[in-house]
Amino acid sequence: MLSHTKIASAKPEAKDYSLSDGQALSIQITKAGTKRWRFRYRYQGKAKMLSLGLFPKVGLAEARAERDRLKKILQEGIDPSLARKLQESQDDRTLFGTVAREWFKKFQATKSEGHQKTEWQRIESNLIPFLGERPINEITPAELLHTVRKVESRGALEQARRVLSLAGQIFRYGVASCLCDRDPSQDLKGALTPPRKHHYPAITDPDLVGKLMKDIDAYQSFVVRLALRFQALTFVRPGEIRFCEWEELDLETNTWTIPANKMKAGKEHMIPLSTQAIDVLNEIHSLTCRRKYVFTFATQQKPLSDNTLNTALRRMGYSKEQMVSHGFRSMASTLLNELGFDPELIEVQLAHVGKDKVRAAYCRAEYIDKRRSLMQAWADYLVSLQKGGKVTPIRKAL
After folding, report:
1. Most buried residue among 136, 153, 251, 264 by CB atoms closer than 10 A?
2. Could you give the angle at which helices 308-315 and 222-234 cross, rounded to 10 degrees?
3. Which CA distances in Å does 156 have to 169, 194, 389?
4. Which residues are part of the catalytic machinery?
5. Rounded to whole angstroms, how far apart are CA atoms 132 and 358?
6. What is the spatial distance between Cα 96 and Cα 140, in angstroms, rounded to a whole number?
7. Same structural domain for residues 163 and 48?
């Protein structure tokens, strides 16, 4: 049995040594003079050891009490080392960074891979470095505003707004999980400079659209050429083109169904495929049909990078102020509206459907035939523009 006096008077030696207190508790005296409590035990036949802290911060009575507590845990068939890790994990759970990771893991799975990556980058770059180690319940509105204004000071006004929104979602998850009392972002409404409205550059002049389609068909890369043509025909978001998979395509019904986790709104989206779009798929089928993604290079299993389509447009001579890959959506929306198509039908095809579930179901079931006619008319119109004509599509069925 040890005593306080014996431990305090123990001197360092040339090598580390230990003094035993009995019942698996000992104190190690290192050659540097450090005195560390140790609890040795066996679990499932394997020898293990836990450090109980340093003397004199942890006294003899405290070390013995902790040893007795750990022995009770061991008698219950639980590894004391694992029990400690779980306790430390529970303590860490109150930190903003831990709550942010927990929220992200739980709620981001329904969003597209690209959207998940972007949102986590915003959190990791703009919130975690400043708030990550702070207890979430202690963060004030002023502290959160100071953090978000670091983003605003860079001139990234829209980014600042999105970072604040993400912080609010994390805090609300914390409130629901009983980890904090309230969401401080609610006090910051109107505190940031409003971002300027941004529209993706797009070509909407029919003659220039015809030239664009010619330039796409003349582009040197077979895979990128077909990806751009397919995007023009379907006017989906660039990420939805890049991550298009063969298993999402039904070539019997000529329909592409994008799952909810790949859509910005988190809802499954059906795209009727025109005969021209099917032609694109037939062209690339022999090259990538045994791969996961439709538009991928022959030597790779991964999708095109997020810059590939825009880089191709730059190489064709289109500046970033003239046309970006996301601009195919604005191009289709503008021209289809000018040609007199039903604006609501266009919005449905763009996946700009409101939150009303009944209306959404109606759009999916009742509009599919009209949307199929719309997509075929759009494809025919692009062909006519590429050939140099300005033929207005027939809209009787729309």
Report:
1. 136
2. 100
3. 20, 11, 43
4. 237, 264, 326, 329, 352, 362
5. 41
6. 12
7. no
Residue 126: inside a domain: yes
- 81: closest CA among 96, 73, 128, 127? 73
Q: For residue 153, how many C-alpha atoms fall within 13 Å in the half-sphere facing its CB?
A: 7
User: What's the domain range around 13?
Assistant: 4-91
On the 0-12 / 13-18 / 19+ scale of CB atoms within 10 A, 68 is: exposed
Q: What is the CA radius of gyration of the chain?
A: 31
- Going by C-alpha positions, the residue among 48, 63, 49, 50 that lies closest to residue 7 is 63
In the block, residue with structure tokens 């989906």: 236
For residue 215, the SS3 value is helix
Q: Which of 137, 154, 188 is a domain's end point?
A: 188
Would you say residue 199 lies in a domain? no
Q: Which amino acid is at 391?
A: V
Task: Identify the CA nearest to 230 among candidates 303, 269, 296, 279.
Answer: 279
Q: Which of 237, 371, 238, 225 is closest to 306 using CA atoms?
A: 238
Tens place of pLDDT per residue across the chain (398 aa): 899 999 999 999 999 999 999 999 999 999 889 999 999 999 888 999 999 989 988 999 999 999 999 999 888 888 888 877 766 655 567 899 999 999 998 887 666 666 777 788 899 999 999 999 899 999 999 999 999 999 988 888 888 999 999 999 999 999 998 889 999 999 998 899 887 655 788 999 998 999 999 999 999 999 999 999 999 999 999 999 999 999 999 999 999 999 988 887 778 889 999 999 999 999 999 999 889 999 998 777 788 988 999 999 999 999 999 999 999 999 999 999 888 888 888 988 998 755 454 455 444 555 788 899 999 999 999 999 998 865 555 454 35
Query: Which pair of structure tokens corresponds to residue 31?
Result: 């050659």
- pTM (whole model) above 0.85: no
Which one-letter DSSP state was computed for residue 261?
A: G
Identify whether residues 355 and 242 lie together within a single domain: yes
